[in-house]
Design a protein that fits this description.
Its main location: other. The protein is α/β, with parallel strands linked by helices. The chain is built from 7 helices and 5 strands; from the N terminus they run H-H-H-H-E-H-E-H-E-E-E-H.
Amino acid sequence: PKGVINDWRKFKLESEDRDSLSSSKKEILRQMSSPHRSFSKDDKDTRERFCRKMSMQEYELIQDEQEDESCLQKYRKRCMQDMHQRLSFGPKYGYLCELQSGEQFLEAIEKERKTTTVIVHIYEDGIKGCDALNNSLTCLAAEYATVKFCKIKASDTGAGDRFSNEVLPTLLVYKGGELLSNFISISEQFNEEFFAVDVESFLNEYGLLPERELPVLGNGNTDEQDVE
């Protein structure tokens, strides 16, 4: 596509050593950095000459295959980083948040942006499966930083009668203030010993977790493995 080609051309010019560029190439870079510059009718010939010169010099710039391949790898990494930033907008958490009251419980659900998934573990000390689930959610919170993972004791919710020991651990999933899923006695879904990967698989079966975040890419100055 034309936009991609133009972006690649600009990146190619910007990656050149500025001090080693000729004045004509520096002019090309300046013009490409100001794409909305207008020309008057009197400048028509100048514009046409500039376009021809830019095409010729861009053609010369991409003739060195080794240099071009290295530049292409850097360009692809930059595109991946840009895409990662666009897909990763919104707040980041990365930890399991302890809620202390029913008011905090409601705020964690209702005051989040509509695109944020909120997963709340209702537990009590000494209940089978609660500690293992808290440990698993702590690991998943680090893996899925855009998901808000919370835990709260049933006795702190203000509605302890609704969360008797028989239904714990309970996992509630919200989005946009709406309850998406309600899993009571969720530890019964797993083996006696379970880990984060088991909880992750379970949540993924219901489509409750986003795609894993892309790994942090290098700045292009190292010989890292290229992204396919």
